[in-house]
Amino acid sequence: MKKIPGYRRVYAGTQPPHLHPPYVSSLKRAPLQALVPLPHTLSEITGPVFGTEIGDVKACDLTRQHPGEPLGERIVVSGRVLDEDSRPVPHTLVEIWQANAAGRYLHSRDQHNAPLDPNFTGCGHARTDAEGRYRFVTIRPGEYPWGNHYNAWRPAHIHFSLFGPAFATRLVTQMYFPGDPLIPYDTIFNCTDDENARNRLISLFDWDTTVPLQAMGYRFDIVLSGRESTPMESRPHGENS
Amino acid sequence: MSLHATTSQTVGPFFEIGFSWLYRDNLAGPVVSGERLEISGRILDGDGKPVPDGIVEIWQANSYGKYAHPDDPQEKPVERGFTGYGRVPTDEEGRFRFATIKPGRVPGPDGKPQAPHIAVSVFTRGLLRRLTTRIYFPDEHGNTEDFALKLVDAGRRGTLIARKIDGRPGMLEWDVILQGPGETVFFDV
């Protein structure tokens, strides 16, 4: 049978540990045993393929999912999904969710004393094009308080979920906004050691995607694990765990 | 290599907003072949408390041991109505449940067949990265020779094998214990 390479492992420091004590919710949920390094097999180099599920064009425009317009500052969030060799990841599912302009999520567990917006759900999804590009129209989410510690506030952020080509490439992350004064204090943003890796979670203001008289553009490129150059059968156990 | 993969961040408590459109708790349509199973369990934290804001994603081969994916080179049939993907949230008791078929065997790194298994991703508030693990099946003779189970300390292998429920054929239980005694084996994928 044809030998198919697996996917690359985490580069040291660029991903968060499971246990990050300043993030209180990790204390009782992070595993304490070492993870077992698993060589990639067909089970890890394949993954769900989505196509026809994503037919609704409204899914990528979060400002047009209700009869009225949501309150807040309209923005365009776009970018490319690439692998670690800078190759585009085409036709892959990108999901987003976020708070409204007042910093409130449409969720029963969100008890923040800020108004819901009847014209904003905060859910979107899209598939990248052949060049790995995606584009959402939404409103800029508000910052909001949370219970991690005294006077804790989350910087404005949008949650992103990506599948990529394989089980091994699945990624959930958050995108932040440039110049947000809360970012340096955020325990979730700060969970990753590598400063450059952290800062890549901050989108860039982008004139090219800013729509005149309509919406400011923010650019957020996302990188998924790339292919190993060696066939998966020859990968040594325990590599870069 | 010029780039590094983007840093993971937690799904937080409100992922339902973004994920619920793709919730899928029945993986196999009526004409899909294979042994029908219902797998349920709970996600529990280090204090044994249920995790009500967690999500389990499932990835598996069909009953022939074929993945519905272009990189699966095996000459085995793909079935209409079976993508192999599932996504189920936990309820207030931390419980999740999905219906599927038992997957067939797929090749391992040495070309030898792996024991039937389901690849699982776990996301919860509090997890900064997803956790990945596998569900294996009880009374499966292939388990003793499975390369991935052999990577795990014998005393912890049981956390990867679903349990039968007395008097309930076709029903299996499999819990995810995030931390502490009985902690589930998680793989670095």
List keywords for this structure.
heterodimer, A: Protocatechuate 3,4-Dioxygenase, subunit A, five-stranded mixed beta sheet, four-stranded antiparallel beta sheet, 14 strands, disordered C terminus, B: mainly beta, Protocatechuate 3,4-Dioxygenase, subunit A, 4% helix, globular
Secondary-structure topology with pairs:
The complex is a heterodimer of chains A (241) and B (189).
Chain A: E1 5-7, E2 36-37, H1 42-45, E3 74-83, E4 93-97, E5 123-127, E6 133-139, E7 144-146, E8 152-154, E9 157-162, E10 171-176, H2 195-199, E11 204-205, E12 216-219, E13 222-224, E14 227-231
Parallel strand pairs in A: 3-12, 3-13
Antiparallel strand pairs in A: 1-14, 3-6, 4-5, 4-9, 7-8, 9-10, 11-12
Chain B: H1 16-19, E1 36-44, E2 54-59, E3 85-89, E4 95-101, E5 117-124, E6 131-136, H2 147-150, E7 163-164, E8 171-173, E9 176-177, E10 187-188
Parallel strand pairs in B: 1-8, 1-9
Antiparallel strand pairs in B: 1-4, 2-3, 2-5, 5-6, 7-8
